[in-house]
Amino acid sequence: MGRSKTITFQQFWDAYGKAYGEKLDRLRAERAWNRLSARDKEDAYDAIDWYHDKCQQRGISMMYAQGYLNNRRWVDKKESEAAATKTEQSPTPTAAADTLSDMETW
Predict the structure, then answer these.
(1) What is the pLDDT of residues 19-51, one digit of tens each?
(2) Is-above-0.90 flag for pTM?
(3) Residues in contact with 5: Cβ distance below 8 Å, sequence separation at least 6, in sequence order
(4) In angstroms, what CA-CA distances link 62 with 40, 68, 69, 87, 102?
(5) Minimal CA–CA distance to 79: which of 50, 49, 36, 37?
(6) Cβ-Cβ contacts under 8 Å for 75 (sequence gap 6 or more)
(7) Which parts of the chain fold into alpha helices (H)?
(8) Which has the closest alpha carbon to 44: 4, 87, 3, 84?
(9) Would you list the domain boundaries of the chain?
(10) What confidence tens digit (pLDDT) does each residue in 45-69 have?
């Protein structure tokens, strides 16, 4: 397993500000950042673009950086990817329809 990359708050702040369009409430965001583990910092940083895209798709605004960090929004990306993987491994629609037909005969 590879070594984790070290992400600084400044790197996160700059990337999030670029995606969000402005930088607001730095002090609170930095406090939230400092409470995260190194792994969470990496995951939070890596999910910024994903979060930005999801907000745009839904027509909603991104949270301030503090809210993104405190609400652990990057976890949504992991859950979304896990659900997509599970869907890919699900039975084919035909097999699912056959199962439904079998259940209807009960």
Answers:
(1) 999 999 999 999 999 999 999 999 999 999 999
(2) no
(3) 42
(4) 19, 8, 12, 27, 45
(5) 50
(6) 43
(7) 9-20, 26-34, 38-46, 48-58, 65-70, 74-89, 93-104
(8) 4
(9) 9-104
(10) 999 999 999 999 999 999 999 999 9
